[in-house]
Structure prediction request, 222 residues.
Amino acid sequence: MSETLDATLKDGVQALGLVLSEAQLGQLLDYLALIQKWNKVYNLTAVRDPAEMLTHHLLDSLAVIAPLRRQLQGRVPVEGKGFKLLDVGAGAGLPGVVIAICCPDIAVTCVDTVAKKAAFIQQVAVALKLPNLRGLHARVESLVEGYDVVSSRAFASLADFVTWSRDALAPAGVWLAMKGKHPADELAQLPAGVEVFHVEQLSVPGLGAERCIVWMRPSSAS
Prediction:
């Protein structure tokens, strides 16, 4: 089974136009194994089948890596020491852990209100030796750190996402919201002071479903 997963992952990574080292590919598969192991106790994801998990979770999250890198090109980190990303309602760490594995230059914090899930992220950081990853048990509304990117995947409505995480986003930062179909209704409900500057269609290898990223930032008028 592991050979099949390995081949599917490599094909998917190639289809997404990513270049990852053998070590990074290994970390992704080890992460998948950790989700499976801890799922029994922590109920991290409803998807139980490893092959389905690979497509629905790993490849789905890997699809944001190239768009994220493009967005950060030419930007200067808020504190000048490297980019900081906050993954909100991270659950099992998707896409936060995947971003931490693929982008070692980005410091990733996965925040969740469920202590077990934040503890799982900490466990992943130790097991996979990811110094740029941390799990945080907190409500996102309480964070005021100023992140370059605040991301979410299947977390909440866009309006709630930006409202709750507003104080955590740096003034020049961007929101990255992973969605399924183009969320026209949610876009119409966005609060004043938030500007959508790009809705990017994603193609996830092996997944016959619509996916997109809604990129937002605080509008200059706010």
Q: What stands out?
A: The beta strands are 83-88, 106-112, 133-137, 147-153, 169-179, 194-202, 211-218. Helices lie at 2-15, 22-42, 50-62, 65-72, 96-102, 115-127, 158-165, 184-188. The chain has a mean pLDDT of 91.
